[in-house]
Amino acid sequence: MVENNEYTGFFAEFYDRLHESNDDINAYIQFGKKYGPRILELGSGTGRILIPLAKAGYFVTGLEFSQDMINIAAQKLNKESLTTIERCTMLNGDAANFLLDQVFDLIIAPCNFINHFPAFEQLELVLSCIKKHMTTSTVLVIDNSMPALKAWIETNGKEEVFEFDGPDQDKKIIDRFTASFDFIHQIETDHIILEEYRKDRLIRQAECRVELSYYFPRELQYLLTSNGFAIFHQQGSTTKDIPIDMKADEMVFCCRKLS
Fold first, then answer.
1. Does pLDDT of 212 surpass 60?
2. Among 10, 44, 188, 207, which is disulfide-ready with 50 (CB 3.0 to 4.6 Å)?
3. Where would I find the beta strands (DSSP E) of 8-129?
């Protein structure tokens, strides 16, 4: 079965397993302590960050393009306390074209969210929408991976195979991932095949092809400042306040909009 993207169907079900090693949740709770309590998360997905933020006491609105991801988040949220449920709002929408009737204290774009907008013009539309939901004291946090050029050159066009335990003891999931890079136009094309096995029998398969952009620090700094934002802090890790340099794996920008 061919899926529209990596956030529908089988891929949506697999998302939390793929990201269970991420250690950014506590970092966003700390951002909430500094800048909350009213938070907007762009690309809220399965609620991986949204629900822990609500459990920590913040009022969180999640904007997500995939209804399948929202449905999974809702199932997870329904297992939480009524207080946590009441702090969450999940909306189906496009980050390049949304208008909500409120402003927020903190807006977050975590986990490479902006890479889903390959053209600068698309990303500028996202930034324009974000500004409409900010006051001059609102903080925008953008978290993005540093381009891993050396590793990408070595793995360009090569299939990598990963194995995960399935939801039941007698099941396993095979993730066949091939990333190809256009280094001139800074485009990554991912071909992904998910296979679910019961013992050695294939019982389900899904396939998708995804096109993403990637950005370098100077590009993001320019995009932010040229679109009406002031960067007041930047660091090379979501979890640690270290410089953005050759040793950094990430680039995190904390911004406010200019008056």
1. yes
2. 44
3. 38-42, 59-64, 88-92, 104-109
